[in-house]
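Usage

Read records sequentially. Each one opens with the input sequence:
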Amino acid sequence: MNNNELDLKHYDVRTDLALEAKEMAEGAGGGPIPGVLSDVTEDNGISITRLHVQNEQGSQAIGKIIGQYVTLEVPGLRSGDTGLQDRVATHLAKEFEAFLERLSINKQSRVLIVGLGNWNVTPDALGPLVVENVMVTRHFFELMPDQVAPGYRSVSAVAPGVLGITGIESSEIVHGIVEQSKPDLVIAIDALASKALERVNTTIQIADTGIHPGSGIGNKRKGLTTDILGVPVIAIGVPTVVYASTIVNNAFQMMTEHLEQQRGDTDKIFGLMNKMGDNERLMLVKEVLNPMGHDLLVTPKEVDQFIEDIANIIASGLNAALHEAVDTDNVAAYTH
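and closes with the structure output:
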């Protein structure tokens, strides 16, 4: 199969991360993907991958919409290092400012922040937690505009809940709010699904392609996109869950590598499984687990602290990127 024929739907591996979709496509095709450009920078424990899906060929190859994707990978976030968290917020602010510039969002443009997810379920509470911590100013501009200090813009925020709580699609609620408040930009924040356990709660993705709530866990929901809302939409997401089948498959791969170092030959132990490709083996694991209802969504036991920390990081980064009066290099001072 050549690069032009790659189609991730064949593998049925659910991931919301464009970086992972690219890695899967490269693994299947054996090389770079035409129509997809990427570059990586490193800064003392923070890896930033900027991915540009340029055309339909690249979009088909990795299964992601044409647009810009930026991924911040920070394995050290699990350590609770507040200094590292501050640096991540600063990088997030600067990367987000680049998105604003590309979309021609000026300093006076009005912004609506939408925190998607279920506030009653910790791994899905990222959006509502960010909404609690962002700097909301629209009411000041509406009620007392002459008293607003320079360097701030009109920012509103809402956590619309989930279909099971409200009986209304999130996109329908947001569409009504957009029609009434008329923002120039919508920022949608949601929890994502990853195919790699090490990326859970350590990775932040920014994309200018909008968002489809629940897509990473197989739910088909009406999305929040420019076509639907009529204004630009920037999505920010953090993978907070991974499938049990992915964990089993990763464990098998680690066992194989460990035994190869110890014994050299693992064919006698694993036989045919040893000759399967990664995606083929994952499909076999899913085939075994799904009928029994065991292909669960899994999150680390420390998710309570992780979700609060990363919500604060995102809120701090947004405060700095959206309000000129907030010092981008000292975002920690503005965390609620």
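Summary fields computed downstream for this record:
- The longest strand covers residues 233-243.
- The chain has a mean pLDDT of 84.
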